[in-house]
Design a protein that fits this description.
Blueprint (H helix, E strand, L loop, with lengths): L9 H11 L9 E2 L7 E5 L2 E5 L6 H15 L18 E3 L2 E7 L4 E2 L5 H18 L23 H9 L5 E3 L8 E4 L2 E5 L6 E3 L1 H12 L2 H4 L3 H12 L9 H21 L5 H13 L3
Antiparallel strand pairs: 1-2, 2-3, 3-5, 4-5, 6-8, 7-10, 8-9
């Protein structure tokens, strides 16, 4: 049982079996890839995700509803399984627990040009599907964030304050680690914890940066192509110029660094690369 760590406990397994009325073979559970914030374990045809204590039931229930709304129109969108009393979240020993269908596949590869093209089209379809969804008020969400005085930028703050576009539901964390690929095709879009209401241009810029390997190259050529493919696919974001692309990416980098520092992420090399990118992308 060492490979399960301490997050998938016997108490959690019993609670899952009762809430979803499914058989749970704890001895056969297998830890899945990932887990910066949540840990995922395969239990037969299902995946149990155990989250951090600071995530609220209301927040994860709402983000699960976003996934469910997307899944009605986008086959790749994976929605959580509701409990027998129609909840998406239970809490065990202070941690939120959700259940998802298991989808076979490999982690996405943002260096694969075919997957990049598919991802841009998927994001366009996703934004169209979510543009008209109305899930009511967004629950309060408090995300850990440490001070980032070394990323202070008054010009960026002023630009963000002036950036005004229509807002809608978005996935919130659209990058290669959150898709599964099977037989060369993107088969699943996972991890909806960061779903939010925001300008689709914000998500488009971040996705273009991630899928365009911008952190590796400090070059926006592939990011620009991602944007073009998204627009050709009919996404709801309007075209974003070079300044907007750079500033939205820089805002994303700053937020990620603040989160990583608050959650004691000790990958100093990765943060150093992010800081270098933040400076290099200044318009």
């Amino acid at each position: 049982m060492d490979h399960l760590g301490t997050w998938l406990t016997e108490r959690t397994a019993s609670a899952v079996a009762a809430a979803w009325r499914i058989p749970v073979d704890l001895a056969g559970a297998r830890r899945l890839y990932g887990g910066q914030e949540s840990l995922a374990y395969r239990l037969g045809d299902h995946v149990v995700r155990v989250g951090p204590r600071w995530r609220t039931d209301a927040d994860l229930g709402w983000s699960g509803s976003v996934a469910a709304a997307a899944a009605r129109e986008v086959p790749e969108a994976v929605a959580p399984v509701p409990t027998v009393d129609a909840r998406f979240v239970i809490r065990v020993d202070g941690r939120p627990v959700t259940l998802w269908p298991f989808v076979p596949g490999n982690r996405g590869d943002d260096a694969d040009p075919r997957q990049r093209e598919q991802a841009a089209g998927l994001l366009a379809r996703l934004h169209r599907a979510l543009a008209t969804a109305d899930l009511g008020p967004t629950p309060a969400r408090t995300v850990p964030a440490a001070p980032v005085p070394d990323l202070a930028d008054d010009e960026l703050d002023a630009w963000l304050a002036s950036f005004s576009r229509p807002r809608q539901l978005v996935h919130g964390d659209f990058y290669a680690a959150n898709v599964l690929v099977r037989d060369g095709r993107i088969a699943a879009l996972l991890d909806w914890d960061e779903a939010r209401v925001d300008a689709p241009e914000w998500e488009l810029a971040g996705a273009a940066w991630e899928w365009g390997a911008g952190l590796d190259t400090l070059d926006l050529t592939e990011a620009g192509r991602f944007v073009e493919r998204y627009l050709a696919g009919g996404g709801t974001a309007t075209g974003i110029d070079d300044t907007a692309l750079r500033q939205l990416i820089r805002a994303r980098i700053r937020a990620e660094v603040a989160y990583d520092r608050a959650t004691l992420d000790d990958d100093d090399d990765y943060q150093d690369r992010q800081l270098a990118a933040f400076r290099a992308l200044r318009p």
